[in-house]
Design goal:
The chain is of the alpha+beta class. Helix 1 runs antiparallel to helix 2. Strands 1, 2, 3, 4, 5, 6, 7, 8, 9, 10, 11, 12 and 13 form a 13-stranded mixed sheet that branches. It contains nine helices and 13 strands. Strand 2 and strand 3 form a beta hairpin. The protein binds coenzyme A. The site of coenzyme A has 16 residues, from strand 4 and helix 3.
Length: about 300
Amino acid sequence: MKDVSVEIRGCNSKAELIEVVDLCDAAFPKTPREYFERHVLKDKTLDEKDTRVLLIDGKIVSSVQVFPRTIYVQKEKIKIGGIGNVATLPTERGKGYAGLLIKDSLDYIIKKGYTLSMLTTSINNYYEKFGFQTILRTIANINCNEGKNHKEISQFDKTNDLKNIINIYNGFNSGKIGTIVRDEKYWLSQFEFSGEDKDLFLIYESKGEAMGFIRAQRKDNYITILEYAFNDNNTLVFAKLIEELSYMTDINEFKLFLTKEEEENINRRFSFSLKDEKDFMICFLDNSLSMKIKNELLKDRNLNFWQSDFF
Ligand SMILES: CC(C)(COP(=O)(O)OP(=O)(O)OC[C@H]1O[C@@H](n2cnc3c(N)ncnc32)[C@H](O)[C@@H]1OP(=O)(O)O)[C@@H](O)C(=O)NCCC(=O)NCCS
């Protein structure tokens, strides 16, 4: 058999990142190229080296991206390495290349001092080999019988509303389990890579004060809620934002991931059904992480990871 040279390392140029976009585009035939352009090229929180590649005789054949993030776990802030865009060229599969890169990425995450890794997948048993465990989440299917126009609601405007949105987000999400700690750089970058429908980013104001927001994405016959937040535990704000989305789009069905705790936010106003989802996995990489934190992250329907933060 012909000897091949195998090299594993981080990307070191924009040209290599574009090669990774080409690779992901070839590996995921159902996902549009535009998705990878956003994800690989527009996230300013990433270093070129965070996109890990395996080269055979100098050509990139496999990729894994490591997303440096920090999550809230109640009062603690935990540094994590999210994993995404795991891909091998169709002609090079089954040779262990993705496996080598995943191991390299976990080492890379440990070297950066991060304590755990997370990913979403449909091939859970593949990732179990590397120490990942599946977390049970739930998707709620909400029915909003009647859309309504609310005068307190307007479209998000980056220049005027960003500071308010950040404050509402921080108040709502610090102290939860798994939500991302976001600074302004992350927010601005996320607007570029999230793929949300900009017209469905709505903000609720009362007496001139911003009280809540919602971000969403249109699908064929339903709307995905990417995230929401509101002040003062005021669940009515959430209900009105949903009604407004329904009014704007003429769509009554909404889907969102919902923790057990958050069911309270919707069950007074809307009828809904729940479906289990096993697409989320965690790998603990640091023995010093307390059992309490691990248990909170592993508990069924406890983890709150907004879809706008996907990797
Ligand atoms: C998944 C993928 C990255 C694996 O790349 P690879 O270089 O062939 O990976 P390896 O050689 O290390 O391992 C191959 C393993 O992946 C498993 N695998 C690949 N696709 C799979 C699928 N759709 N369902 C279940 N297992 C799958 C193979 O069964 C094989 O398992 P084994 O090690 O027990 O034999 C590659 O198949 C790919 O690019 N797929 C399309 C994109 C994708 O689905 N990425 C993962 C997103 S979470």
